[in-house]
Amino acid sequence: MKMTLNTYEIADALRNDTNAKWSYNGARALAEYLEEYEESTGEEMELDVCAIRGDFYEYESAFEAATDRGWEPEASILDDDDNIRPDDEVMEENEELALKWLQNDSQVIEFDGGLIVSR
């Protein structure tokens, strides 16, 4: 017996996995990603929330995800004239660099409020 789930049902199943602690937006983005993957490959998937929990992690920022995986910030606090740059400017540059680093190493699913990164 087989049951087909829609995006909302997949997201709810992910959110009901209390060990994963997916945000609503994160669970929805991951559900949409899994549906798109299934459609693009033509392979039907079985929803295994335990396996998904082990394969994907949710973060609030690329900086957080990348540093969790050993990346070290690259943006300099000094500009070309050796003046100290504003903190928000340095953080923004490091966020962009971290995202590029993650995309070279993992599947990254961006959504409003964070991102999900494959293991």
Describe the structure.
With 119 residues, this protein is mainly α. The chain has one domain (7-118). 51% of the residues lie in helices and 11% in strands. It is built from 5 helices and 3 strands, in the order H-H-H-E-H-H-E-E. The protein has helices at residues 7-16, 24-41, 49-55, 62-68, 87-105; strands at residues 56-59, 108-111, 114-118. It is elongated. The mean pLDDT is 91.
Short summary of the structure?
With 119 residues, this protein is mainly alpha-helical. The chain has 5 helices and 3 strands; from the N terminus they run αααβααββ.
Number of domains: 1
Q: Sum up the overall morphology in one term.
A: elongated
Helix content: 40-55%
Tally of DSSP helical segments: 5
Structural class: mainly alpha
Q: Return residue spans where pLDDT drops below 50 for at least 5 consecutive residues.
A: none
Report how far the terminal alpha carbons are from each other.
31 Å
Major sheet size, sense and barrel closure: 3 strands, antiparallel
Number of strands: 3
Element pattern in H and E = HHHEHHEE
Mean pLDDT, all residues: 91
- The radius of gyration is 17 Å
Strand order of the largest sheet: 1-3-2
Percent strand equals 5-15%
Features:
119 residues; mainly alpha; three-stranded antiparallel sheet; 5 helices; elongated
Q: Which secondary structure elements does this structure contain, and how are they paired or packed?
A:
Blueprint: H1 7-16, H2 24-41, H3 49-55, E1 56-59, H4 62-68, H5 87-105, E2 108-111, E3 114-118
Helix pairs in contact: 1-2, 4-5
